[in-house]
Amino acid sequence: MKIVIFGSGGVGGYFGARLAAAGNDVTFVARGAHFEAMRSLGLRVVNPLGDVSLPEVEVVNRVAQIKYADFVFLTVKLWDTQQAIPELVPLAERGAAVISFQNGVQKEEVLLRVLPKPSVMGGVSYISAAIQEPGVIRHFGPIQNLVFGEFDGAGSQRALELLSACESARIGARISNEIEREIWEKFVFLVGLSATTATMRQPIGAIRTNEQTRGFLLDVMRETVNVGRARGVTLAKDYADQQLEFCDTLPAEMTASMYQDLLRGNRLELPWLSASVAELGEKMGIPVPRNRAVTDILALYVAGHKSD
C-alpha cells in the first residue's frame, strides 16, 4: 500500500513512521530543516510504546514529485490547508483517497471545493506528539488512535485495507459509519481544552477543580454542541456534560497544543476552533458568548509573536 504523509510533524510523522516500519510504501512530504534531516538521517520516533527508528525514508518537499498513492494523510497545519489542497488534485484524480486528520470541522468543506467528492474520506486522530528536533518525533503518552470512514456511512474496501495496514503497524484504529459525528465529538472536547488552557494559562487539572473555570469549560463545550446539533450533527444533548466527566479522567498536567503554541509564540489554530464556533453560531443565531470571549482574548496572539 502506498501512503503519502502530507505534513510530517507530530501527527503525520508518528503515524507515517509506524506504517513505514510495518512495511508499507510511505512517502513523507516535509520542508525546511525537518526535510533535510529526514533526507540525510531518516526519521526517529521517541515513544513510550517503543521507539521507532527508520535510518532511511522516502521524503520529498513537493507533492508534485509523487505520481501515485492509495492514501494521502493530510496532516499539515490548518492554515496551510487552502494552499496545500490544489497540490493533491493530480493524486486524487488518479485514485488516491484523501483523509484529513487535522483539527476542526470545516476542513472537509474546503477539500470538497477542490477535490473530486469520491476521493475524500473523513478522519480523526487521537495523539499527543510533536517534532522534538528535525528528524525526531516525540510521542507523549500511550494514546495513538485513528478513526476513519466514508461520509455516506457505507462500508468500503479501501477503509478495510487501511484498517488492516494500521492494525499491522500496531496503530489503534477503527472504521466509523458516522464519521461526521466522530469529527464533531473530538471538536467539542478540543475546543473546550484549547479555549480554557490557552486563555487561563493553566493545565486541565487546575481548571476542572475550580467552580468558576469548570463552569466556563462546560459552557464552551455546550455552545459547541449546540452549534453542531443546529447543523444536523447527531450529537447527544448532554454530550458536553459527558466530555466534562471525561476531562476529570485526564492527567492533571494536560494542556492543549494551542496552549503550547501560545507559550512558544507560534501561530494559533484559533480560527478553526473557538473562532469557528463563534462564527458558525452567530450566522445561525445561536448564542456563543464564551467562544466569542475566547476569540477576542486570544486575538492578539493568533499570528504568533516570536521575537526572532
UniProtKB/TrEMBL annotation:
<protein>
    <recommendedName>
        <fullName>2-dehydropantoate 2-reductase</fullName>
        <ecNumber>1.1.1.169</ecNumber>
    </recommendedName>
</protein>
<feature type="domain" description="Ketopantoate reductase N-terminal">
    <location>
        <begin position="3"/>
        <end position="152"/>
    </location>
</feature>
<dbReference type="InterPro" id="IPR013752">
    <property type="entry name" value="KPA_reductase"/>
</dbReference>
<dbReference type="InterPro" id="IPR013332">
    <property type="entry name" value="KPR_N"/>
</dbReference>
<dbReference type="InterPro" id="IPR013328">
    <property type="entry name" value="6PGD_dom2"/>
</dbReference>
<dbReference type="GO" id="GO:0005737">
    <property type="term" value="C:cytoplasm"/>
</dbReference>
<comment type="pathway">
    <text>Cofactor biosynthesis; (R)-pantothenate biosynthesis; (R)-pantoate from 3-methyl-2-oxobutanoate: step 2/2.</text>
</comment>
<keyword id="KW-0560">Oxidoreductase</keyword>
<dbReference type="InterPro" id="IPR036291">
    <property type="entry name" value="NAD(P)-bd_dom_sf"/>
</dbReference>
<dbReference type="GO" id="GO:0008677">
    <property type="term" value="F:2-dehydropantoate 2-reductase activity"/>
</dbReference>
<dbReference type="InterPro" id="IPR003710">
    <property type="entry name" value="ApbA"/>
</dbReference>
<comment type="function">
    <text>Catalyzes the NADPH-dependent reduction of ketopantoate into pantoic acid.</text>
</comment>
<keyword id="KW-0521">NADP</keyword>
<comment type="similarity">
    <text>Belongs to the ketopantoate reductase family.</text>
</comment>
<keyword id="KW-0566">Pantothenate biosynthesis</keyword>
<dbReference type="GO" id="GO:0015940">
    <property type="term" value="P:pantothenate biosynthetic process"/>
</dbReference>
<dbReference type="InterPro" id="IPR008927">
    <property type="entry name" value="6-PGluconate_DH-like_C_sf"/>
</dbReference>
<feature type="domain" description="Ketopantoate reductase C-terminal">
    <location>
        <begin position="179"/>
        <end position="299"/>
    </location>
</feature>
<dbReference type="Pfam" id="PF08546">
    <property type="entry name" value="ApbA_C"/>
</dbReference>
<dbReference type="Pfam" id="PF02558">
    <property type="entry name" value="ApbA"/>
</dbReference>
<dbReference type="InterPro" id="IPR051402">
    <property type="entry name" value="KPR-Related"/>
</dbReference>
